Amino acid sequence: MRCAEGQRPETLESLRKNATYQRRLFDQAVKLVRPGGIIVYSTCTINPGENEALVRYALDTYKFLSLGSQLDAAWLLGTFTTVGGVPTALAPGPEIQDW
Q: Residue limits of the SAM-dependent MTase RsmB/NOP-type domain (predicted)?
């Protein structure tokens, strides 16, 4: 279902299929999480079907779920490496580096 890294979906239908696939994955996560547990949902897409629409689906379908607060991820992401003032890479912050 997923495109290779760095490639875009070829059709609108493939975008819809990806959203359906994500929904099925989320449904399984709900079945597997322990009572009181946390589901972290994260994507690498700007497809609303996989993002906002999935969150709306989850909250409408699973009334016992609630949104947690969003984390300030600046400490997690660290800083951009730049070449000539152009961002080229994002390095993790030292708090999460384990090497």
A: 1-99
